[in-house]
Design brief:
By secondary structure, this protein is mostly helical. The chain is built from 7 helices and no strands.
């Protein structure tokens, strides 16, 4: 272990002691929930520990806030995906509903796909989702988006590559 790592952990310790209470309070105000606030405060410091920070953090609260805001956005996206999945399940006949284990695996897979697609443009995501979920043809997608069929194909390939190879 290099000499820089113990120093980083010491800095994170100080950052935690000095700012954890403030961050937890800031998150409670934003989320209106002390349980989620505690979880996200914890996750914020885990992110700090896993980042490669080689320079001194000059504005620690701004730094922590930026990380926490990203985590809040991730939490909202995850809950939105979960609610959409639950809504779809509610429309299924009970005899076709998956087991709780399959539901959990499907939800995790959907959340992972959502995270992979997040970095793509809206047009690429729409083309991919319309082709995969709605079964639209390339021509139908092209017409909806106002783009050529070859562009639709490129968008779908790009999204598939992101999902299959995490590119």
């Amino acid at each position: 272990m290099s000499a820089a790592k113990p120093h980083l952990h010491q800095d994170v310790d100080t950052l935690y002691v000095d700012h954890h209470g403030w961050l937890d309070g800031w998150l409670r105000k934003r989320l209106g929930n002390s349980f989620d606030a505690a979880d996200l405060a914890h996750d914020t410091f885990v992110r700090v520990l896993t980042r490669d920070v080689s320079e001194i953090i000059r504005e620690p609260r701004a730094y922590l806030t930026t990380i926490a805001q990203g985590l809040i956005a991730n939490q909202y996206r995850r809950r939105q995906v979960e609610q959409s999945y639950l809504d779809a399940l509610a429309q299924m006949p009970e005899q076709h509903a998956p087991s709780p284990e399959i539901r959990a695996m499907m939800l995790e897979t959907l959340i992972e796909i959502d995270q992979l697609l997040e970095g793509l443009s809206v047009v690429v995501r729409k083309a991919f989702l319309w082709s995969q979920l709605d079964g639209l043809s390339h021509a139908e997608i092209g017409e909806r988006l106002g783009i050529s069929i070859s562009t639709v194909k490129r968008h779908i390939v790009k999204a598939l590559a992101r999902c299959c190879f995490a590119e």
